[in-house]
């Protein structure tokens, strides 16, 4: 496909580099400034454009600006998109309807959300291989996007537009929340004089177990065993040694007690924490 990219940031350039490597042709990169467009366009041999320029003929236009800017960008460029067959955005939370200005011109619209972290263009392009991609589009665009995902080495799946907010919350829970727990663990290990690297085999085994056994069955430790005395000792140690983590630690115990069906059993241990806060 001939592809036009609007918004040459981390996600957009990850897709552009991966699509270029998969023998698609990125014909133009549209940036907010000529300079940002030129730098990015040079990476994939495309023409640099800015918003308001006439867009070249292409089968696919990808809008990869931040979520809040997609609607305004779509409204600003749709009138220059007479030669564009389909327009998509790459947000996992934004409805496809924000691309209505294109649909009004007869252009197919949809979304294509990589369920992957894309921290830089190069690292992101590499990480698209093996990643899942959520597709929201009707046929025939749906089949085109499924083929594009396959070309990138990714695994496409269909996502209802209505399900996007809860899907995005799930993605945040999976990708972001573990980092809060790991930051807490890193500080508490440091307080014990234990190097952070020592946690790596443990953490990697836990993640592997979560996918082999399911996240609930993978749980080991004092909450899974119903050992309230050990948990009380942990809560005390955190409160005394590194009180900044006291509330988060207690809340995490509460969540584990809920998923193991032991809320009642841990109520008194946690009640002590709540009274002290
Ligand atoms: N990064 C990820 O891990 C990831 C993964 C999946 C999906 N996504 C999705 O990808 C989209 C972009 O996220 P990102 O992380 O790539 O953000 P980003 O790195 O900040 O990139 C956004 C890009 O859009 C440009 N831009 C902003 N307003 C524009 C406008 N009016 N016209 C043209 N270009 C404009 C920005 O240019 P300036 O630099 O000039 O501001 C920047 O190049 C979001 O919808 C996000 O949900 C991201």
Descriptive overview:
- The protein is an alpha/beta fold.
- The protein has 2 domains: 2-161, Rossmann fold; 176-276, no CATH class.
- 51% of the residues lie in helices and 16% in strands.
- The chain has 13 helices and 8 strands.
- Strands 3-2-1-4-5-6-7-8 form an 8-stranded mixed sheet, with helices on both faces.
- Helix 1 (10-21) crosses helix 5 and helix 11 packs parallel to helix 13 (263-276).
- It is elongated.
- It binds NADP nicotinamide-adenine-dinucleotide phosphate.
- NADP nicotinamide-adenine-dinucleotide phosphate binds at residues 6-12, 30-32, 36, 51, 64-67, 69, 73, 90-92, 113-114, 117-118.
Keywords:
2 domains; alpha/beta; Rossmann fold; 13 helices; binds NADP nicotinamide-adenine-dinucleotide phosphate; 277 residues; eight-stranded mixed beta sheet
Give a brief description.
It is built from 13 helices and eight strands. The protein is an alpha/beta fold. Helix 6 (141-151) links the parallel strand 7 and strand 8.
User: Count of helical segments?
Assistant: 13
Named once each, the bound ligands are: NADP nicotinamide-adenine-dinucleotide phosphate
Percentage of residues in helical conformation:
40-55%
Strand count, sense and barrel status of the largest sheet are: 8 strands, mixed
Q: Strand fraction band? A: 15-25%
Question: Which residues form runs of ≥5 with pLDDT under 50?
Answer: none
State the name of the first-level CATH class of the largest domain. Alpha Beta
Helix/strand/pairing category: alpha/beta
Q: State the end-to-end CA separation.
A: 59 Å
The CATH superfamily of the largest domain is known as NAD(P)-binding Rossmann-like Domain
Strand/helix succession: EHEHEEHEHEHEHEHHHHHHH
The averaged pLDDT comes out at: 96
The number of domains is 2
What is the number of strand segments? 8
In the CATH hierarchy, the architecture of the largest domain is: 3-Layer(aba) Sandwich
What coarse outline follows from CA principal-axis ratios?
elongated
Provide the CATH topology of the largest domain: Rossmann fold
Trace the largest sheet across and list its strands.
Answer: 3-2-1-4-5-6-7-8
Radius of gyration: 24 Å
């Amino acid at each position: 496909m001939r592809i036009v990219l609007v918004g040459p940031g981390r996600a957009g350039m990850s897709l552009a580099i991966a699509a270029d490597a998969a023998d698609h042709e990125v014909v133009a990169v549209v940036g907010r400034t000529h300079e940002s467009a030129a730098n990015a366009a040079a990476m994939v041999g495309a023409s640099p454009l800015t918003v308001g320029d006439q867009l070249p003929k292409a089968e696919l236009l990808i809008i990869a600006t931040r979520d809040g800017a997609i609607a305004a960008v779509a409204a600003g460029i749709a009138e220059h998109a007479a030669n564009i067959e389909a327009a998509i955005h790459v947000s996992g939370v934004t409805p496809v309807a924000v691309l209505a200005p294109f649909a009004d011109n007869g252009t197919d619209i949809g979304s294509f959300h990589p369920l992957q972290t894309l921290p830089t263009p190069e690292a992101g392009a590499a990480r698209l291989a093996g990643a899942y991609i959520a597709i929201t589009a009707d046929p025939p665009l749906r089949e085109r996007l499924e083929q594009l995902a396959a070309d990138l080495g990714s695994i496409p799946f269909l996502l209802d537009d209505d399900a996007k907010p809860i899907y995005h919350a799930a993605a945040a829970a999976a990708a972001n929340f573990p980092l809060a727990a790991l930051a807490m663990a890193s500080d508490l290990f440091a307080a014990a004089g234990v190097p952070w690297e020592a946690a790596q085999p443990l953490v990697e085994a836990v993640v592997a177990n979560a996918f082999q056994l399911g996240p609930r069955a993978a749980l080991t430790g004092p909450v899974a065993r119903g050992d309230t005395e050990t948990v009380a000792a942990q809560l005390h140690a955190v409160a005394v040694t590194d009180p900044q983590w006291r509330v988060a630690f207690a809340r995490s115990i509460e969540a584990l007690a809920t998923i193991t069906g032991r809320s009642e059993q841990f109520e008194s241990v946690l009640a002590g924490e709540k009274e002290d806060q």
